[in-house]
UniProtKB/TrEMBL annotation:
GO terms for molecular function: ubiquitin-like ligase-substrate adaptor activity. One of its GO terms (biological process) is proteasome-mediated ubiquitin-dependent protein catabolic process. InterPro entries: BACK, BTB/POZ_dom, Kelch-typ_b-propeller, Kelch_1, SKP1/BTB/POZ_sf. Gene3D superfamilies: Kelch-type beta propeller, Potassium Channel Kv1.1, Chain A. Residues 21-91 form the BTB domain. It comes from Caenorhabditis briggsae. This is Protein CBR-KEL-10. Keywords: Kelch repeat, Repeat. GO terms for cellular component: Cul3-RING ubiquitin ligase complex; cytoplasm. It comes from the Eukaryota. It holds the Pfam family BACK. Coiled coil: none annotated. The keyword Cytoplasm does not apply.
Length: 524
C-alpha cells in the first residue's frame, strides 16, 4: 500500500484482514494465522481487552477472539511495541507500516503503541502526505489529528509554494486561514484563496468566496498595511531583545522582531521578574527556562542569577556566581558553568588570558572564548575549553582582526561567526567565520553599520544584529545576514538606541502568544 497514491478514505475502507487470537502463553504464530497470547498480558497493554475480560460479554470467557482489522503478524507487532519499550528498546517502524497500524492500535487502545505510531507519523510528515494523514488521523485518533493540524499550520508556506494546499477541502482551508498561528506571508493570503477557487469547481467554492468577501481587509499595524489579509497573525518565529544600556540608563522595554511585518515591536512583559533588566549581562534559553546572570544596572554589578520559566510564567532567584563578571575593578580570567537542574555554578579551569568584552560561543560541544581586552591589549586570538580534561587550549589560528566588544553566534555544529567590535582604532563592520574542523578563519561580507557592544542571534538561516555603539553614539540600527545568499539586509530600527543588549530567538514556541497578545477571535 503506497500512502502517496491512496486517499485517507480508501485507507480507512480497505477490506479488513482477519486474525484469531487464542489466549495461551505462546507468542508463536500458527499456520492457521492464529496468535497465542496471555489474557493478563493483553489486559495490561490494551484497554479494549481489559474491558472485554472484566465484563459479562459472551466473548469474555471464550478461548479465542476474532478481530477483523488486523493480520496476525501485525497484531504480534503491536503487542511487541510496548514490550520493547519496557526493555528500553525503541522499535524501528517505517511510515507506511505506522499508517497501517494506526486503525487497529486505536481500536484496541494499545496506548503505548499508539503514541509510538503517532510519533513516527509526525516525524515523517511532508507537504506531499500531510493532508491525507490528517484526514486519516481524524477517523482514528484525535490527538494525532491535532498534532498534524499544527504541523500543517507550521508548514503552510511550503504547502503554498508547492501547490499542495489546492487539495484541501473548503472547510479545511477556511479553518487554516482563520488560525492566528498560520505560517503564511501577508502578500500570499489573497493568492491562496484565488488559486484555490480556480482549482476547484464553483460548487465547492461557495463558502470560501463568501468568507473572502467578508474577511479580506487591510488590517492595522502590526500585521499588514500593504496587503489585504484575512486576519492579524502571530509569526512562527521571533527575535526577542532584553535590556541594554540606553540614554537614560538600563532599557526598560522588551522588543520583539515580528518576521511577518518585518519590524520591531515593543511588548508588555506582564510578569514581575526582578532584576531581569540589565546591561552587559548574560542570557541563555535552557529547557524552556530563561537564565539571566551577571551584568550591570547603572548602580549595581550583579553576580546574581534569575531563572524565568517560560511555561509556568514563574521566576526564581538562582545561585550566585562565584565572581562578579563585571566588578568595575579588574579584568578576569576565571570561568564557571551553570547547571539549571541543580541550580549550581561550578568553577572550571582559568582561561589563558584575562578578557573583558570578548565573545563566547558554544559549538562542537565545546565553549570558545574569542577576542576581548585584558587591560592593555586587544586580543587577536581565542581559546577553547575541553570539559573532559578541564583545560583551555588556544584556537588553531588567530582572527584576521583584533576585536573587543564583539559578538559571536553558532552557525552550524562546527562553525561559529564573530561580528563587529573595536580594534583599538575604530568600530568594525567586518565579520569572520571559524570552522573547528579545519581551524581556519574566513571573511564574511561586511555589515551596513560598524558597531561594538551589540547583540546578535541566529534564526532561520539568518543572523540578526541590533544595537551597539557605532563610534559616535549608541545606535538603534538593526540588520540581518542571509546565510544562503551571503548578503546583509537593513531592517527597521529598534524603538530606542541601546548597547550591551541581549537577544534570543524563539521558533514555534507557546511563549510567543504572551509576547504578541494576538486575539483568538476569528473576526480580529
Amino acid at each position: 500500500m503506497d500512502l502517496s497514491d491512496v486517499s485517507g478514505i480508501q485507507l480507512a475502507t480497505s477490506p479488513p484482514p482477519r486474525t484469531a487470537i487464542d489466549y495461551n502463553s505462546s507468542f508463536e504464530e500458527s499456520p492457521a494465522k492464529r496468535v497465542f497470547v496471555e489474557r493478563t498480558l493483553l489486559s495490561h497493554y490494551s484497554t479494549y481487552f481489559r474491558v472485554l475480560f472484566s465484563n459479562e460479554f459472551r466473548d469474555s470467557q471464550a478461548s479465542s477472539h476474532r478481530i477483523r482489522l488486523i493480520t496476525a503478524s501485525d497484531f504480534h507487532l503491536l503487542i511487541t511495541i510496548p514490550r520493547a519499550f519496557e526493555q528500553g528498546i525503541k522499535p524501528n517502524i517505517n511510515l507506511q507500516k505506522a499508517v497501517e497500524l494506526l486503525e487497529p492500535a486505536a481500536y484496541l487502545q494499545i496506548n503505548i503503541a499508539l503514541e509510538h505510531i503517532s510519533d513516527i507519523i509526525c516525524a515523517n510528515l511532508s507537504h506531499e502526505n500531510i493532508i491525507k494523514i490528517f484526514r486519516l488521523a481524524l477517523l482514528y485518533h484525535t490527538p494525532l489529528a491535532l498534532r498534524v493540524w499544527r504541523a500543517m499550520i507550521r508548514q503552510f508556506q511550503t504547502m503554498f509554494a508547492t501547490n499542495a494546499y489546492l487539495t484541501l477541502k473548503e472547510n479545511e482551508l477556511i479553518g487554516l486561514l482563520t488560525d492566528k498561528h498560520l505560517n503564511l506571508k501577508s502578500e500570499d493570503e489573497r493568492t491562496v484563496v484565488v488559486n484555490w477557487i480556480k482549482h476547484n469547481s464553483p460548487l465547492q467554492s461557495d463558502r470560501i468566496v463568501q468568507f473572502a468577501q467578508r474577511n479580506f481587509a487591510r488590517r492595522p499595524q502590526p500585521d499588514s498595511t500593504k496587503y489585504e489579509v484575512i486576519r492579524n497573525r502571530q509569526p512562527i518565529g521571533a527575535v526577542v531583545s532584553f535590556g541594554g544600556w540606553a540614554s537614560r540608563g538600563v532599557a526598560q522595554k522588551i522588543e520583539v522582531f515580528n518576521k511577518r511585518c518585518e519590524r520591531w515591536q515593543t511588548c508588555n512583559f506582564n510578569y514581575d521578574v526582578p532584576n531581569i533588566r540589565r546591561a552587559y549581562n548574560g542570557i541563555e534559553l535552557v529547557d524552556d527556562k530563561l537564565v539571566v546572570f551577571g551584568g550591570f544596572n547603572g548602580i549595581q554589578h550583579f553576580q546574581t542569577t534569575t531563572v524565568f520559566d517560560l511555561e509556568t510564567k514563574k521566576w526564581k532567584s538562582g545561585a550566585n556566581m562565584h565572581d562578579k563578571r563585571m566588578n568595575g575593578v579588574s579584568r578576569l580570567k576565571t570561568a564557571e558553568v551553570y547547571d539549571p537542574l541543580s541550580d549550581r555554578w561550578t568553577e572550571i579551569a582559568n582561561m589563558t588570558h584575562m578578557r573583558s568584552d570578548g565573545a563566547v560561543v558554544s559549538i562542537d560541544n565545546k565553549v570558545i572564548a574569542i577576542g576581548g581586552f585584558d587591560g592593555r591589549n586587544i586580543h587577536l586570538g581565542g581559546e577553547c575549553y575541553d570539559s573532559i580534561v578541564d583545560k583551555w587550549y588556544p584556537l588553531a589560528s588567530n582572527m584576521r582582526t583584533r576585536r573587543t566588544g564583539c559578538t559571536a553566534v553558532p552557525i552550524m555544529d562546527h562553525v561559529c561567526m564573530v561580528l563587529g567590535g573595536f580594534n583599538g582604532v575604530k568600530r568594525l563592520d567586518t565579520a569572520e567565520l571559524y570552522d573547528m574542523r579545519e581551524g581556519l578563519w574566513h571573511s564574511v561580507s561586511v555589515m551596513h553599520t560598524a558597531r561594538s557592544n551589540f547583540s546578535a542571534c541566529p534564526m532561520d538561516f539568518s543572523v540578526y544584529v541590533a544595537g551597539g555603539f557605532d563610534g559616535q553614539s549608541t545606535t538603534k540600527d538593526s540588520e540581518r545576514l542571509d546565510l544562503r545568499a551571503r548578503k546583509w539586509q537593513a531592517l527597521p530600527d529598534l524603538a530606542e538606541a541601546k548597547s550591551a543588549l541581549r537577544m534570543i530567538s524563539l521558533t514555534d514556541h507557546p511563549f510567543l502568544d504572551e509576547l504578541f497578545h494576538i486575539s483568538d477571535d476569528d473576526d480580529s
